[in-house]
Amino acid sequence: MKNTNKQKDFQVRNLIIDDSNSFINLMNKFYEYSGGKQETEQSIMPLFEKALNPTANLHFLVAVQDSNLIGMISLTFAESSYKVSPFAYGDDFYVVDEKRGAGVGNALIEGAKKEAIKHNCSNILVGVGNDESDAISFYKKNKFFDMECKLMTLPL
Q1: Smaller CB count within 10 Å for the chain: N or C?
Q2: Largest CA distance in the chain
Q3: For position 47, what pLDDT does the model report?
């Protein structure tokens, strides 16, 4: 996504090389928020580098205010035999506490929709916990609907 989307006092854009330090800080806030442990720069940098690789299937849209990252969503694109079209999976969706309710999350969702459309996706999927009522309400306000299925994982 080359164009920037200015809204209020922040913008939404793709992750860029100059974001490295702010990305590490934002990821650690995200890990803390989601109950994970703090990570080192060395463990986060491969993710950052992969997200910057134009041939990788991982894209980060970020919300930026005064050169600081205040929100993010990662998108992974995949093919679906169910709809016979690609879909986008939105993951690592996070807005710093002090910016919640300021339109940052909505702007990130709008940016994700534009990016998914550019990749010819039919839909965006997101995972949300059954007990995350605020997140569920947010997604419903942004026209997501409950698919009435459960996302499961197989650790390897």
Answers
A1: C
A2: 43
A3: 95
